[in-house]
Design a protein that fits this description.
Structural class: alpha+beta
Distance between the termini: 20 Å
Number of helices: 3
Number of strands: 17
Strand order of the largest sheet: 8-7-13-12-11-10
Strand content: 25-35%
Mean pLDDT: 80
Helix content: 10-25%
Order of helices and strands: HHEEEEEEEEEEEEEEEEEH
């Protein structure tokens, strides 16, 4: 019996290394935009001890806050995540390497290979935003492309330069360009719609960045593009869904359970020593 207890306690100690790692990761990223809690810590600290690397994260929405940045956007759908491609400077044309995030903070990046366009890039990870041209025509992840922004559009009398950009409530990137003549008003052009994909926690695997995910392979679930209008809140960012009181409660519970497990190991070890001495 003591050998079984010792073995179980040893496995539990090894598992608690993962638990403390997850808790530390959650607490450290409480202020990381779009970060999602690893929810398995609650099952682990309760004593099941079977969950490990790659468990489904808790993809609930975090609080949103205004930023005033026209390239920031918060996704309203609780299951929606923005598709990301590769980093523009390291892209090798592998369209299968997609990432997903709820951190809708984007910047533009100059494309040295094509001076006539900018790339729309996820601020935290540096990965290109994926999207579709408008009007939408059966959009899927497979036919999404890296969003490119022309720095000028052709006019009848002159090229019209890009003045500014914004992402609207439909998750559409809109460019504002000069008018046909200096006296003409500027015009807005819909450049692309962000590829907002429906995902659930069990469909994603380890984060290549703290707030970006990759898909698990061979996992059931829809990855369709959400085509609903009014899906975004412009000039806002979603924060993490970390509840610090819950995390510290889980940490205290983990510490108490760990202390109990180590006592079991010590007691089992003493029992084995006693049995061994009796046999001699």
């Amino acid at each position: 019996m003591s050998r079984v207890a010792l073995s179980s306690a040893s496995n539990a100690v090894m598992n608690f290394g993962k638990v403390f790692g997850k808790l530390a990761d959650n607490i450290a990223n409480a202020s990381t935009d779009g970060f999602k809690a690893n929810n398995s810590v609650f099952a682990d600290t309760a004593g099941t001890g079977n969950k490990g690397k790659g468990d489904a994260d808790l993809l609930t929405m975090g609080p949103i806050r205004p930023t005033g940045n026209k390239l920031d956007v918060a996704i309203r759908s609780f299951s929606g995540m923005i598709a990301l491609g590769e980093r523009p400077e390291t892209a090798i044309g592998n369209e299968d390497i997609l990432n997903f995030t709820r951190d809708g903070s984007f910047i533009t990046k100059y494309d040295p290979d094509n001076p006539d366009v900018f790339s729309l890039v996820h601020h935290a990870s540096g990965r290109s935003a994926r999207g579709h041209a408008l009007p939408l025509d059966n959009p899927t992840l497979a036919n999404s492309i890296d969003i490119k922004i022309p720095n000028k559009i052709e006019g009848e009398e002159r090229d019209r330069a890009l003045l500014n950009l914004r992402i609207n409530e439909h998750a559409v990137l809109v460019g504002r360009y000069e008018g046909e003549t200096p006296k003409d008003p500027a015009v807005e052009v819909e450049i692309a719609r962000l590829a907002v994909t429906r995902l659930q926690g069990h469909q994603v695997v380890d984060r290549p960045n703290q707030n970006a995910y990759q898909l698990r392979s061979n996992v059931f679930g829809n990855t369709d593009i959400i085509q609903s209008k009014n899906i975004a809140t412009p000039e806002h960012i979603e924060g993490s869904n970390i509840n610090l009181p819950d995390m510290f409660t889980a940490l205290i519970l983990a510490q108490k359970t760990f202390s109990t497990v180590t006592k079991v190991m010590a007691t089992s070890d003493e029992m084995l020593d006693t049995i061994s001495s009796l046999k001699r």
